[in-house]
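Internal tracking record. Fields below are filled automatically when a chain is submitted to the structure queue. Please do not edit lines marked as system-generated. If the sequence contains nonstandard residues, flag them in the REMARKS field before resubmitting.
Queue: standard
Priority: normal
Entity type: single polypeptide chain
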Amino acid sequence: MPGHHERCIVKIGILSDIHVDLEHDDPRRVLDPLADEILRRQVDLMIIAGDVANDYRLTLESLARIEHRSGVRCLFVPGNHDIWNEKHPDQDAWRIYEALKAFPGNLANGAVTLDNDWVVIGDLGWYDYSFGSRRYSEEEFDRMQIGSRLWQDKIKAIWQAPTLEMHRYFREKLQRQLEAHRGRDIILVTHVLPVRDFAVFDLGPMWEYLNAFLGSRQYGELALEFGVAYSISGHVHYRREVRHEGTTFICNCLNYLSQWQGNRDPAVEIARAFKAIEID
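SYSTEM-GENERATED OUTPUT FOLLOWS
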């Protein structure tokens, strides 16, 4: 008989940037194949690292549908698209961020301890320009515009606070939770990037500017400082994994339909993008 304190193996599915209402005429075309893939992979838990939809109400409905159809618990952090107000111009990012806490698995509500005593800590996070080129000033980054390209958070994610202040808010919130669970086995989830490895280097000089809005190296530094086992993120529409010291950094995004290479079938692309890890 297993010992009373013996921990069980937990299989966790990972995906981000589902974007069910961009380039899809019906969100169910993505949601139902995702729930089916969760069942096919036989995961015990699903982590979704943000950007489910451009409308927070649809985000909440989508998360509930995934859980109901698959029967598997989902943990989630909001992405920048989830807090956009384009469908709710009377609401700012704070109100939408708070409304998204109605989903029980939203890690913005607090850390979650799993059955095998691992702890999952997470939140949206924000950016501090640290991945942008140093040839731009803070004031230039604050404009969130290069040429005719406007970073849409400027007009759709209205925090009523400066960008760097929002980054500090999330960094300090995550740091407090990591301190409270120091020494535990931890999975850290942010929507934005924690390491420069996942920034954009091969799409031209414009991205020397736009990389500023992808995340913060400070989230990666927190992961290393507290010995986080896995750091999960999204936002940049990559599928990559790197390891620094004892931390595995994972970015696994489904992406926009137009970004799927040689494929238009959501079920096929979800199977390609879906990542699973096992922890014990």
